[in-house]
Design brief:
Length: 238
């Protein structure tokens, strides 16, 4: 098997295992590492295909628990934000994009290094801005999760509503973004072939995420995620 394809299988297995457990993190954990083997312009649309496939599996069980008001606020910003982000992905050279991605991932890693997550309550009016930021980063790098998670974490949602809202939000946003990638010529037959070859790893990761319970404490887990993000972000810079 091609070494790049083998590495991609392992990356997707890990990233989407975490995604199925928490509701977010698939692109955040996979894109920086996949960018070491494939150009960003190629791999970001491929990862979006996988996210849409995962949504088909997760949305039916999540739809009834969604916080609809916050979902609509975030989508209201994400739709135009994605338009700008996809335009930038199509327009900019690959190397500057990798540097920006590396810096952004390092920033998220430093955020995770904090001892405890923030409990501050953010006004719901910030939903549109958070949605735009998420759509922008998602269109450019496929990593819209941090902006959405930061906002929803401040809305005092229970865990079920938090996870369900993210799942449905990603389903709609990624489907919209996938259409934009195809329109810009960023998603081609070769990308679809790669996505198809990665589907077994996606399905396996999703099943494991449903049946395996995380036994590591939240504080320790956050530190491991932070270290992983810092390392992968640094690799993107060099």
């Amino acid at each position: 098997m091609n070494p790049s394809l083998l590495a991609a299988q392992a990356i997707i297995l890990f990233a989407f295992f975490f995604r199925s457990l928490s509701g977010f993190g698939g692109a955040l954990l996979s894109i920086p590492l996949l960018a070491l083997f494939f150009p960003l312009k190629f791999i970001v649309p491929v990862e979006s295909v996988l996210e849409v496939a995962l949504s088909i599996l997760l949305v039916p069980g999540a739809i009834r628990r969604v916080d609809r008001a916050n979902l609509l606020r975030l989508l209201g910003g994400a739709v135009p934000g994605s338009l700008v982000g996809v335009f930038l992905l199509a327009s900019w050279a690959n190397r500057p994009m990798e540097i920006i991605l590396g810096a952004a991932v390092i920033g998220v890693g430093l955020f995770f290094l904090r001892n405890t997550p923030s409990r501050a309550v953010m006004s719901s009016r910030w939903g549109l801005a958070a949605g735009f930021a998420g759509g922008l980063l998602g269109g450019m790098f496929g990593t819209s999760g941090p902006a959405y998670v930061a906002f929803l974490s401040s809305q005092a949602l229970d865990k079920a509503a938090f996870r369900a809202t993210l799942i449905v939000l990603f389903a709609v946003e990624y489907a919209w973004r996938l259409g934009l990638y195809a329109h810009q010529g960023l998603l081609d037959f070769q990308g679809l072939q790669l996505a198809l070859s990665l589907l077994p790893a996606l399905v396996a990761a999703t099943l494991l995420g449903h049946f395996v319970h995380l036994r590591v404490g939240e504080k320790v887990f956050r530190r491991w995620v932070a270290v992983f993000l810092l390392v992968s972000g640094t690799l993107c810079l060099f």
